[in-house]
Amino acid sequence: MRKVLKSLCAFSFYCVFCFHGKAQEYFDYQATTPCDPRVISAMAPYWTKEFGNPHAHHAFGERAAAALLKARQQIADILGGKTRDWIFTSGATEANALAIKGVMLAAPYGKKHLITCVTEHKSVLDTCRFLAQQGCKVTVLPVDREGHLSLTLLKKAIRPETMLVSIMAANNEIGVIHPLSQIAKICHDRGVLLHTDATQAIGQIPFSISLTHADLVSFSGHKIYCPKGIGALYVAPHVVLTPLFHGGGQERGLRAGTVPVPLCVGLAKALEIAEEKRSTESQRLSLLQKAFLQRLRTLKGWCLNGSLKERLPNNLNISIEGVDSEDLLAALSEFALSTGSACNSDIHFSHVLEALDPEGILPPATLRISFGRYTTEVSVHRLADRLIETVEKLRHIKPFGGKRACKTKKGMIAH
Ligand SMILES: *Cc1c(COP(=O)(O)O)cnc(C)c1O
Q1: In terms of domains, do 310 and 255 share one?
Q2: Position in ligand 1 atom list of the atom nearest CA 230
Q3: pTM exceeds 0.85
């Protein structure tokens, strides 16, 4: 107990005073999260004393194997499915690749069509692009201005050769939540498998295999206060996958390589903590989200990207008129924020914003603000106030009316 308290104290010190070396306040929890000290404590013995290879047949190996089994059971208890259905991976990128390539490589001849959505994470879209080069047929569904997918279009896109649909549970840039159980019903009525990248949903909104009925589910540790380099994929018993790597037959032969026991123990602990506090924490973040939007009402010329109603409680994504995004970021350097732009030529180009804005009318200065476990009401108000003040100042000294080369896409050059 004393040990935990000590590490908690050390941790809050770290959080407030020295994030990133510079005194910056962190608003980028959707990019990654710091480790929870309780996760570090849970992992601790498995780095040193309990270092055994879980696949070895001696006492060291058996103790490591027992810890691994417990971690897998905890994940199944929280997210659903059977213990053996959960495969540990290096993160969500690998889990997405294993799900999508794995299913499509194993798909019989005549079932080589797959459907995804334009706002998916790059690890999904680029995997689909690779498969298209290998001869698979890929349909990429559009979204509307709010980031919603049309279920009618999804139904229309499914054809006899469709093997898989991959649709994320919630978006990492605009926080938009997709109606997964309805999507699963559409897929299953037509005999199609559903994969979902649930990386941003898990720990934020109610999520389980039995709620969503997805056949494959990916998630990552470092978005839920666990270290980077660990994630998992749920593979329903009826799904046939071709593995990405071959070798020692670990993880039911689906993911060869010695399993990183400490990280797996950490992942289960992180998930347990996230679930335990999820409903109160989501309510708290949702209030912060509302407070921020309320405060921003005094500012003119901005819009919220993505639906407000079907949205994660920890995400805001706003586009602001009349300021240059580089100037804005530089002026707000006391905050760690993420930017995005629908401009093809912009270094912060976002395929998600482009999908919401086919005509290129969004102003190029866009901020993604994401809250997390250590975000306080005071810091949210400070960010809102500093943002308003900064935008007004920048507009006054250096009015920015242009959209730069925002419309160079599709071969058109606009002015
Ligand atoms: C962060 C993220 C990923 C990538 O996860 P890694 O574990 O870093 O590979 C994939 N999908 C979504 C939606 C994410 O937010």
Answers
A1: no
A2: 7
A3: yes
| Statement to judge: residues 264 and 286 lie in one domain | no
CA-nearest residue for atom 1, ligand 1, is 31
| Ligand 1 proximity of 204 Cβ (cutoff 6 Å) | no
Whichever domain contains 298, its CATH number is 3.90.1150.10
Residues with a catalytic annotation lie at 343
- Domain total for the chain? 2
64 in contact with ligand 1, CB cutoff 6 A: no
Atom of ligand 1 nearest to the CA of 31: 1
Least confident among 4-18, 93-107, 245-259, 348-362 = 4-18
Ligand 1 mean position to 363 CA, how many Å? 27
Enclosing domain of residue 300: 278-397
Average pLDDT, the chain: 91
- Other beta carbons within 10 angstroms of residue 388's beta carbon come to 16
Distances (CA, A) of 72 to 170, 177, 235: 24, 27, 13
The string of pLDDT tens digits covering residues 273-299 is: 999 999 999 999 999 999 999 999 999
